[in-house]
């Protein structure tokens, strides 16, 4: 229900994650606003075959649109007349003309403590670099990726045994709890806080240099490599992490630093054993 004296905003969401759109729609409506449209980017054919565009749309949102290309975003957004746009898990760089459509601006969810870990795989890099904290930043969108003023930012301690899926779920929950503050600042015309220059890092997609497991590394390094790859969505152009076990190459999905109950394969690392709790063969 709309709060007394506050204007209900028309909000557009850009996301290729239907579950995220559903959760944002619920948050926006609970805050007394209207989610007028959700827009997903059409997926190109992948190594596993073409994607059914209808699978990208969020069925819980009255108007869900699949944008065929970047050039269509401006006209799609103008048709819905949003006051504000929220982006979360959208794969394209959004043209300036589209960013300018919402009168209160466009704001993006980024799962790191910006300006650290700018780029497409921030959760994975947070694990890879051994950071003490994970975090979420909502920032205004500008021409350059991940460089806009900060509208909200929170952190949570990084557990050394959180899996990639654990991290994604934790940060999703954290990001949703921040939506109210983000919308309130935007509604007030707040431009946000400029990102500091100190501590800025920028990383790209994981490559083959990090795809192979070197069992001579310490247990923690191997464990973190497996956890970091757990944050990388599939299908992906590089498969990792791959390790040689008993003369065969396997993709290691999960590991334990202590001997677990049940079946697990013990492998000696540089400073002790690690247990492979889930693997799959690699052709």
Describe the fold and architecture.
Helix content is 23%, strand content 25%. The protein has 283 residues and is α/β, with parallel strands linked by helices. It has 2 domains: 10-187, Formyl transferase, N-terminal domain (Rossmann fold); 208-281, Methionyl-tRNA Fmet Formyltransferase, Chain A, domain 2. The strands form 2 sheets. It has a 7-stranded mixed beta sheet with strand order 3-2-1-4-5-6-7, with helices on both faces. The protein has a 4-stranded antiparallel beta sheet with strand order 8-9-11-10. It starts with 9 loop residues before the first strand and ends with a strand. Residues 1-5 and 45-53 have low confidence and may be disordered.
What's the quick description here?
The chain is an alpha/beta fold and 283 residues long.
Low-pLDDT residue intervals, each spanning 5 or more residues: 1-5, 45-53
Q: Give the helix tally.
A: 7
CATH architecture of the largest domain: 3-Layer(aba) Sandwich
Q: Tell me the number of strands.
A: 11
> What is the number of domains?
2
Oligomer: single chain
Shape: elongated
Element order: H for helix, E for strand: EHEEHEHEHEEHHHEEEE
The CA-CA distance between the termini, in Å, is 55 Å
CA radius of gyration is 21 Å
CATH 4th-level superfamily of the largest domain: Formyl transferase, N-terminal domain
The CATH class of the largest domain, by name, is Alpha Beta
Q: What is the helix content?
A: 10-25%
Query: What is the mean pLDDT?
Result: 90
Classify the secondary structure makeup into a structural class. alpha/beta
């Amino acid at each position: 229900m709309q709060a007394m004296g506050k204007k209900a905003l028309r909000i557009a969401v850009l996301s290729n994650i239907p579950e995220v759109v559903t959760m944002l729609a619920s948050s926006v409506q609970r805050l007394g606003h209207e989610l007028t449209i959700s827009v997903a980017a059409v997926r190109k054919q992948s190594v596993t075959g073409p994607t059914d565009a209808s699978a990208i749309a969020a069925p819980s949102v009255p108007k869900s649109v699949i944008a065929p290309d970047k050039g269509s975003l401006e006209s799609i957004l103008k048709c819905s007349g949003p006051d504000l746009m929220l982006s979360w898990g959208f794969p394209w760089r959004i043209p300036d003309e589209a960013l300018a459509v919402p009168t209160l601006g466009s704001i993006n969810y980024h799962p790191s403590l910006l300006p650290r870990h700018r780029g497409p795989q921030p959760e994975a890099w947070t694990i890879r670099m051994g950071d003490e904290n994970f975090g979420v930043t909502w920032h205004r969108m500008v021409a350059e990726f991940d460089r806009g003023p900060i509208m909200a930012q929170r952190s949570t301690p990084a557990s050394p045994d959180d899996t990639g899926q654990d991290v994604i779920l934790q940060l999703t929950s954290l990001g949703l709890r921040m939506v109210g503050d983000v919308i309130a600042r935007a509604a007030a015309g707040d431009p946000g806080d400029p990102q500091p220059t100190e501590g800025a890092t920028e990383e790209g997609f994981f490559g083959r240099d990090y795809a192979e497991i070197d069992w001579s590394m310490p247990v923690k390094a191997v464990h973190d490599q497996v956890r970091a790859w757990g944050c990388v969505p599939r299908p992906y152009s590089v498969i990792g992490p791959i390790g040689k076990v008993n003369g065969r190459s396997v993709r290691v999905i999960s590991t334990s630093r202590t001997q677990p109950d049940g079946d697990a394969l013990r492998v000696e690392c540089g400073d002790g054993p690690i247990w492979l709790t889930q693997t799959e063969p690699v052709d």
